[in-house]
Specification:
Its EC number is 3.6.1.-, 3.6.1.22. Keywords: Hydrolase, Magnesium, Manganese, Metal-binding, NAD, Zinc. The chain has two domains: 103 residues, Nucleoside Triphosphate Pyrophosphohydrolase (Alpha-Beta Complex), CATH 3.90.79.20; 126 residues, Alpha-Beta Complex (Nucleoside Triphosphate Pyrophosphohydrolase). The protein contains three helices and 15 strands. The strands form three sheets. It has a six-stranded mixed beta sheet, covered by helices on one side. Strands 10, 11, 12, 13, 14 and 15 form a six-stranded mixed beta sheet that branches. Strands 7-8-9 form a three-stranded antiparallel beta sheet, with no helix packed on it. A hairpin with a 5-residue loop joins β8 and β9. The radius of gyration is 22 Å and the shape is globular. It starts with 6 loop residues before the first strand and ends in a 9-residue tail after the last helix. Bound molecules: zinc ion.
Length: 278
């Protein structure tokens, strides 16, 4: 069951006085109480002291805020959960809301002072921005766009593993888009750097917000053209062509990496393409 039907993001940060729902956050973890992460404000008054509140948007028409606690009290029944541990444990809509909450909170806390003059910054009333009270500099939430690409060669797909991946786990290639670079240029550069291959027939398939810490993943499919695999030292521990009939351990359902693989498998089978994960 979905936790709610519709989430509409807010266009400003300042919280409202009207009654709504809240998520409670402290030291990069969300509070769960009675099995729920979306809580009534009345429930949370004994969780700890409020540091700041941020408007997130509206959940089924009700205002939804983040309450950042400056400290926590020992409240029975409250458990704390990092966002990564909630992957696959909550529905996509709630995960997306919590991802937004975590990104906005990190951005807000990182912009209390102006990067130009050092003056104090405050949320603007009319838009989701922090503004310097001295020099009027404005800062907006930042996204880091990344490409993520599934490379195929007939019934083979290219999967690689980074040194920090769990044992036996392989994924698609990904990389951050540099200033001045298009997504397509980034894709060609990253593929060349990470595995020394040339690709073409680029097709953009879909995107996913990935809040670790603030990425927007742009998912592509590309076809192999030429080259022998040479893993980039320090970045890629292993990279191989895998038969679609004998794949290694893949990223979990709900990730865009897994979705890119599933899309190709569906295409080979003549099956409908699965919907892009939220
Ligand atoms: Zn300033």
């Amino acid at each position: 069951m979905r936790s709610f039907r519709l989430f509409e993001p807010a266009t400003r940060l300042q919280s409202t006085a009207s009654q709504g729902v809240v998520v409670v956050y402290h030291q990069n973890q969300f509070a769960m109480f009675e099995g729920r992460l979306l809580l009534d404000p009345d429930q949370v008054m004994y969780f700890g002291d409020t540091g700041h509140r941020l408007m997130l948007g509206h959940v089924d028409g009700r205002p939804c805020e983040l309450i950042h606690l400056s400290n926590t009290l020992d409240m029975p029944g409250v458990s704390w959960h990092g966002l990564r541990t909630l992957i696959g444990q909550v529905d996509d809509a709630l995960f997306r809301l919590l991802g937004l909450a975590q990104q906005l909170d990190a951005w807000y806390r990182g912009h209390r002072f102006c990067g130009s003059c050092g003056g104090a910054m405050q949320p603007r009333e009319d838009e989701r921005a922090m503004e310097c009270q001295a020099c009027e500099r404005r800062d907006y939430p930042k996204l880091a766009p990344c490409i993520i690409v599934l490379i195929t060669r007939g019934r083979e797909i290219l999967l690689a593993r980074a040194p920090h991946f769990p044992p036996g786990f392989f994924s698609t290639l990904a990389g951050f888009i540099e200033p001045g670079e298009s997504a397509e240029e980034c894709l060609h550069r990253e593929v060349k750097e990470e595995v020394n291959l040339e690709v073409d027939q680029l097709r953009y398939l879909g995107s996913q917000s990935w809040p670790f810490p603030n990425s927007l993943m742009l998912g592509f499919h590309a076809e192999y053209v030429s080259g022998e695999i040479v893993p980039q030292p320090g970045e890629i521990e292993e990279a191989h062509w895998w038969s679609v009939d004998d794949l290694p351990r893949l990223p979990p359902k709900g990730t865009i990496s897994r979705w890119l693989v599933d899309c190709y498998l569906a295409q080979l089978d003549g099956a409908p393409v699965p919907p892009v994960p939220a």
